[in-house]
Amino acid sequence: MKPIDAIVARHAELTAIRRDIHAHPELAFEEHRTADLVAGKLQEWGIEVHRGLAGTGVVGVIRGQHTADAKAAARMVGLRADMDALPMQEHNTFAHASTVPGRMHACGHDGHTTMLLGAAQQLAQSRDFAGVVVLIFQPAEEFGGGAQVMLEQGLLEQFPVEAVFGMHNMPGIAEGTFALSPGPVLASNSEFKIRIQGKGGHAAMPHLAVDPIWVSSQIIPALQAVISRSKSPLEAAVISVTTIHAGDTFNVIPGECMMTGTVRAYTKDTLDLVERRMGEIVTGIGAANGATCTLEFNRIYPSTINHAHETAFARGVLQGMLGEGQLIAQAPIMAAEDFAFMLEKIPGCYAFIGNGDGAHREPGHGQGPCLVHNSSYDFNDALLPLGASYLVHLARQWLAKSE
User: Fold this and answer.
1) Which domain holds residue 171?
2) For 313, phi and psi rounded to 5 degrees?
3) Per the database record, which ranges form the Peptidase M20 dimerisation domain (predicted)?
4) Are 18 and 111 in the same domain?
5) Nearest 5°: phi and psi at 309?
6) Number of separate domains in the chain
7) Residues annotated in the binding site, as ranges?
8) Residues 320 and 293 in one domain
9) Each residue's pLDDT tens digit, 101-120
10) What's the sign of the alpha-carbon dihedral 165, 351, 92, 96?
11) Rg (Cα) of the chain, in Å, rounded?
12) What is the dihedral of CA 186, 188, 189, 193, to 10 degrees?
């Protein structure tokens, strides 16, 4: 196997779709134009369309023609792509750069959506399979947990898929290469707020105050001891304090300090340990300094954990498509992904498609690296036929296999 010739022939059409989406980025749960574009293309290709899950979500249903028996005809497999952009300013100036100030497709969701559209068009035209392919165009991956919302609003009840597959582009991995592994591949994402209530006073008389900034300076390094001394060195986790807010002027000790940050981990046991130790440290250091310190800890996304069987299946599909050295193991990374919610409910696999080193970018790109969440990023359009073909082969072969 290789990229499907009919999809390769439509490369220019897919590129135009991807660049149109890139030029019109929309944030979480605001993907109205993008959803309209997706639904319009699916309807144009004769695909059954369902809208309304998570507000702007779109689900397409393609029923195969090879239905030898009722059991085969009822089988379903899910393919998922995300549609939302990020609240950041694009520094690229090429023709398809963002037309919306402060909004940018800096993570490649425009490419993910287009690859699934390319697969949808091919599957709809051929329908050379038994069973049903469910196309899940999900809003709000970056903020808001759109996958979780779709699940809560009945995604699986309406479309009871046996397995679900997703894909993300990965800068730094060579173009034409895929990476996937079983087990944890992306971390859980938790957010925390630490409020330090001290006692304000004159900066020249600190003994009459309880300085919350001084307390914060003790808490920050103590939190890092959770990583180096409380958990097993064989278990990965990250604690990052990312904001500190306190005070208004140079000669006043403020009464309060607020810190926020993120925690990443691969296992629930490690996350439980980190949360417990953070609470003990925050409370204890506050009490030792005469301050009242509280920790608010919110678990946002769980860890993305690929199922062994589905990952082996996806690897087998890719082995039939790729050349020697183009299929590699994916080392776990500490970024998070709300596809994790789907993998908690349904067996599946999340793969990574190499986006290259940025050499694909046209004149007019920003001077920064072509990394996700970077203002100079752009999805590599050369990937569109390969990614779409992978999704087509994946769906066909899944529905053809014995249960």
Assistant:
1) 5-187+303-400
2) -65, -50
3) 191-282
4) yes
5) -65, -45
6) 2
7) 107, 109, 142, 168, 373
8) no
9) 999 999 999 999 999 999 99
10) negative
11) 24
12) -150
Distance separating alpha carbons of residues 140 and 84, to the nearest angstrom: 6
How far apart are alpha carbons 48 and 158 in whole angstroms?
Answer: 13
Helix (H) or strand (E) holding 235: none
Contact predicate 146/338, CB 8 Å: yes
Q: Which residues does the annotation place in the binding site for Mn(2+)?
A: 107, 109, 142, 168, 373
Helices within 182-267 (DSSP H only) = 212-225
- Please answer whether residues 394 and 9 qualify as being in contact, where contact means their C-beta atoms are separated by less than 8 angstroms: no
pLDDT at 67: 66
Crossing angle of the two packed helices 268-288 and 212-225, in degrees rounded to 10: 150
- Cβ-count burial 36-73 (b if 16+ within 10 Å, e if not): ebbbebbeebebebbeebbbbbbbbbbbbeebeeeebb
Report the length, in residues, of the chain: 403
Mean pLDDT within 295-299: 98
Domain with residue 214: its CATH number is 3.30.70.360
What are the CA-CA distances from residue 150 to residues 210, 300, 336 (Å)?
47, 16, 18
| Domain end marker among 259, 286, 301 | 301
Regarding whether 284 and 313 lie in a shared domain, the answer is: no
Residue 58 sits at φ, ψ, to 5 deg, of -130, 135
Q: At what angle do helices 11-23 and 32-44 cross, to 10 degrees?
A: 160
Q: Per-residue pLDDT tens for 154-170?
A: 999 999 999 999 999 99
220 lies in the same domain as 310: no
**CATH code, domain with 142:** 3.40.630.10
Using DSSP, state whether 275 is helix, strand or coil. helix
Q: Last residue of a domain, which of 301, 336, 362? A: 301
DSSP letter for each residue of 214-231: HHHHHHHHHHHHIIIIIS
**Same structural domain for residues 337 and 389?**
yes
